[in-house]
């Protein structure tokens, strides 16, 4: 499977995952420091490989759920994942996760901005949301740069309290 480019930002390339990403993917999904702030359980190697396989399957079935690898333009190393998914209220939601060694470089902010731009300009969304666990202060800080607080709610899937942020295209165009 070729690495199909989706879009790019100043420093990053967003592309489809490939089977060759399995080691970098596991470095992220098997790291408790990465998974705990979501909160999600750390994956074993087998679980991580299975989840990557499930993502690769999404490309074949043209799913509404869009999950992509994020690479550095400078060396094409996979630094994380990103996506546009559907939340529990059937709204478009941005998603992102970074490998630990790429934290504190502004990549989360760049990913969020890129996903928002792609969602509004390319996919013609009218609304984009973002959810974060109430204790995931780094993600909350990123979401607050672009979106407006909507509500706190119990996330049954992850068994935690989340905050939801929203951004309407008309407000994004004004900014």
Can you offer a commentary on this structure?
This protein has a single domain (5-128), classed as 3-Layer(aba) Sandwich (Aminopeptidase). It is globular and about 40 Å long. By secondary structure, it is an alpha+beta fold. Strands 1-2-3-4-5 form a five-stranded antiparallel beta sheet, sandwiched between helices. A three-stranded antiparallel beta sheet has the order 6-8-7. It contains six helices and eight strands, in the order ββαααβββαβαββα. The protein is 35% helix and 31% strand. The protein has helices at residues 22-29, 32-35, 45-61, 107-122, 137-146, 169-174; strands spanning 5-8, 12-15, 66-72, 78-86, 92-98, 127-133, 148-155, 160-168. The longest helix has 17 residues, at 45-61.
Q: Quick one: CATH class?
A: Alpha Beta
Spatial arrangement of strands, main beta sheet: 1-2-3-4-5
Per the CATH scheme, the topology name is Aminopeptidase
**How does the major sheet shape up?**
5 strands, antiparallel
Q: What is the CATH-assigned architecture?
A: 3-Layer(aba) Sandwich
Strand residues, percent: 25-35%
Order of helices and strands: EEHHHEEEHEHEEH
Query: What's the assembly state of these chains?
Result: single chain
Principal-axis shape equals: globular
Number of strand elements: 8
> What's the end-to-end separation, in Å?
39 Å
Q: Specify Rg, calculated over alpha carbons.
A: 15 Å
Structure annotation, total helices? 6
Low-confidence stretches: none
Total domain units: 1
Average per-residue pLDDT, rounded, comes to 94
Class from secondary-structure proportions: alpha+beta
Name of the CATH homologous superfamily? Gcn5-related N-acetyltransferase (GNAT)
